[in-house]
Write a structure and sequence with these properties.
mainly beta; five-stranded antiparallel sheet; about 250 residues; four-stranded antiparallel sheet; 13 strands; rod-shaped
């Protein structure tokens, strides 16, 4: 009887199984009720069947009743131990789309006093625009995604009113959001928090005393997004693309 190059014990090699993923295989020597043996990887025990893999890569299902009483006892005990071990999470397949969007606008008119001392009613308009990102997460896998959270950084630039073209660099703020579960092949939409972009405009013929420029603004520059499943990072990206090269993720 051959035990490694082929399977000549027909009572042991009954059903060929195709496309099986090996998770916790264990090499054993199995003996049937007639005393014939074969060495193979035990993949799983399910009900009254044991799934094995020979060294040539082929898979077979064997009825437990065809094996010796000792093997049956050991295999059932092994299966019980395996059942108590934590199962590895299936690899996540997540597609994420992010788009910059304005989520609201508020305007306030203010009276101002000119350098001459003249009061100008509603001489200045301050516009607050709330900018953020709309995020679409699509689960491309065949298993639902649970225990999700998003951590992200929003970056803004500031244009100085009194120095034309001056940039004060990027300022950032960190956020965290718990996400709903996503069904297999399902989709989840959520909005980030917003950056308040302020635009100041002098009305009529009034201009800034220092530069002649009549506007100043703070602009949402970009986002750096991480998505976690539990403690596992399953997605990370930033817009614009080079943001992660110029910036660093804050340490906990």
């Amino acid at each position: 009887m051959k035990t490694r190059s082929g399977c000549h014990v027909r009572s042991l090699c009954l059903v060929l199984v195709a496309s099986v993923v090996i998770v916790r295989a264990e090499l054993r020597t199995l003996t049937d009720t007639q005393g014939r043996s074969i060495q193979a990887d035990v993949v799983e025990v399910h009900g009254d069947q044991v799934k094995i893999r020979r060294d040539d890569g082929q898979f077979f299902n064997l009825p437990l009743e065809k094996l010796s009483p000792g093997d049956q006892t050991e295999l059932k005990a092994w299966a019980a131990r395996e059942a108590t071990k934590p199962k590895a999470a299936a690899p996540a397949s997540l597609d994420v789309q992010m788009s910059r969007a304005k989520f609201g606008t508020e305007k306030i008119d203010k009276d101002i006093i000119l350098t001459s001392g003249e009061l100008v009613k509603k001489g200045q308009t301050i516009t607050e625009e709330k900018w953020g990102y709309g995020v679409i997460l699509t689960n491309q896998g065949n298993e639902p995604l649970h225990d999700l959270r998003a951590e992200y950084l929003l970056f803004a630039t500031i244009d100085d009113l009194h120095t034309e073209g001056k940039k004060e660099g990027l300022r950032r703020k960190a956020y965290r959001a718990k996400l709903e579960n996503i069904d297999a092949k399902g989709r989840l939409d959520f909005r980030t928090e917003t950056v308040s972009a302020f635009k100041t405009k002098y009305n009529g013929n009034i201009v800034s005393a220092k530069t002649g420029d009549n506007t100043s603004r703070e602009t949402l520059y970009g986002i750096w997004l991480r998505v976690y499943r539990g403690d596992e990072l399953i997605y990370e990206n930033a817009l614009p693309d080079g943001l992660r090269k110029k910036e660093t993720w804050p340490k906990d």
